[in-house]
């Protein structure tokens, strides 16, 4: 479990069992599943996933989901997440998914900014990536607004329902993030103290050194 991240309008936190039915509602939305070319999630599968996420240690590897809710109205409205592998601990792959009635309001940008800052400020990451279908213009716009740059395009790399689909990949290096400056969030430490932008970590970092169940790759839903 990690301490919450607070933005102007949102609270990002470790998910728990109380999120189950809201999670299933947006995760199994018919229109979103069709757009993302993903399969629905069963009740038991979702229960096990949220339980595992609720116990995940701050420095653990694998897929980490952060539940997103409004600061003034508790209740899951979506999620952001990052996959960090033990084999390549300086790399992360991010994604997000929001309920249909909370799309188009800037929540993905706000939560994505907070997620990226957490990744670079609390983990020794050198590089973040994100991917989406080439036809997903909204996701690509969001990735660019988050500061990511396109660096790849694959042809017929994703197979679903008897068809192959093209994808694009975006990336952001730690040094590029530092050049962008601080995002609009109050970063909360594990001790519960807020770190103002002027005191956050702003220096180069050198260290030796798939999205699994919940979140659509690189914000393919709910921008």
Automatic annotation (TrEMBL):
Keywords: Acyltransferase, Transferase
Parts forming coiled coils: none
Cited Pfam families: Acetyltransf_3 (PF13302)
Molecular-function GO term, any one: acyltransferase activity, transferring groups other than amino-acyl groups
Domain N-acetyltransferase: 10-175
Similarity-based family: Belongs to the acetyltransferase family. RimJ subfamily.
Name of the protein: N-acetyltransferase
Organism (species): Gluconobacter sphaericus NBRC 12467
Phylogenetic classification of the source organism: Bacteria, Pseudomonadati, Pseudomonadota, Alphaproteobacteria, Acetobacterales
């Amino acid at each position: 479990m990690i301490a919450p991240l607070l933005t102007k309008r949102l609270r990002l936190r470790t998910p728990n069992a109380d999120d189950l039915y809201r999670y299933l509602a947006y995760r199994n939305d018919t229109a979103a599943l069709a757009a993302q070319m993903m399969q629905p999630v069963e009740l038991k599968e979702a229960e096990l996933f949220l339980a595992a996420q609720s116990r995940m240690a701050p420095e653990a590897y694998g897929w980490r989901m952060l539940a997103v809710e409004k600061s003034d109205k508790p209740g899951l409205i979506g999620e952001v997440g990052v996959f960090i592998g033990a084999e390549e601990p300086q790399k992360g792959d991010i994604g997000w998914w929001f309920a249909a009635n909370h799309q188009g309001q800037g929540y993905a940008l706000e939560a994505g900014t907070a997620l990226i800052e957490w990744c670079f400020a609390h983990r020794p990451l050198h590089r973040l990536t994100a991917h989406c279908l080439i036809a997903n213009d909204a996701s690509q716009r969001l990735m660019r607004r988050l500061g990511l740059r396109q660096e790849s395009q694959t042809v017929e790399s994703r197979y679903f329902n008897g068809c192959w689909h093209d994808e694009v990949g975006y990336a952001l290096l730690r040094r590029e993030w530092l050049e962008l400056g601080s995002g609009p969030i109050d970063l909360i430490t594990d001790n519960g103290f807020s770190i103002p932008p002027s005191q956050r970590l702003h220096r180069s970092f050198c260290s030796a050194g798939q999205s699994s169940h919940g979140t659509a790759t690189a914000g393919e839903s709910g921008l």
